[in-house]
Amino acid sequence: MQQITVLGSGVLGSQIAFQSAYHGKDVVVYDVDARVLDRLPERWAYLAAQYRQDLGDATPERLDAAVARLRTTTDLADAVGDADLVIEAVPEVLDIKRETWAAVGAAAPERTIFATNSSTLLPRAIADATGRPDRFLALHFANNIWLQNTAEVMGHAGTEPACSDAVAQFAEEIGMVVIRVQKEQPGYVLNSLLVPFLTAASKLYVRGVADVETIDLTWRKATGAPLGPFQIYDVIGMQTPYHLSRSSDDPDQQQFAEILKRDYIDQGKLGRSTGQGFYDYR
User: Which family would the database say this protein is a member of (predicted)?
Assistant: First the structure.
């Protein structure tokens, strides 16, 4: 699969696109907001700097070639018109994802395989919206994709096995360690472990048990972990935790969503990718 389309140019969508281009794929990045796409050159420069810092093979020539393989558009039909694989990384809201996939299913070639990067939603909740549920599955990446390079491949009961195999091969081709999830599981393997941990941290914070720095310090010192939970929130970015917390029935989580929106998202403090989140990285 050479022609790749990424739907959504947020923190992880941009990383998926750049990683794919870095490994030789031709990538179209789609977003509904042209202003967001206009800012992507700054994002490519940021990612290139991270690759140079963290990867031994990230030469200027290779990074320039990756950027040259990236194209942006606000026209969905144009974005998916020649796609071998469409990877969706739009907000973690079921209605938005289903609406997006219905439009993709109507416009993409018959050969196209569809993959969602959803963090929590099951493939079966979205698959029928595409009109081609047998070609739909989940392909979930961790943040900082070039370093935390896992790719969880998870189909639903109706996914054609050959499509799962093709997506797993694609993931290997772009430098991922493939995790084959054997049955549908909310949160896959990674987030089934990570989300309860982060939720516990947010509850300690919302309830006033300890502040952000103390919670992180406790976890790092007591376990030897390199990052505390709020440092991990900054890596993930604020948008996904906000959407998940806002949709929770837990009053603590709803309060946490309000804090994320008021004190961070509305202030442009979206995490490490913007230089500020719970911590200041400038």
Answer: Belongs to the 3-hydroxyacyl-CoA dehydrogenase family.
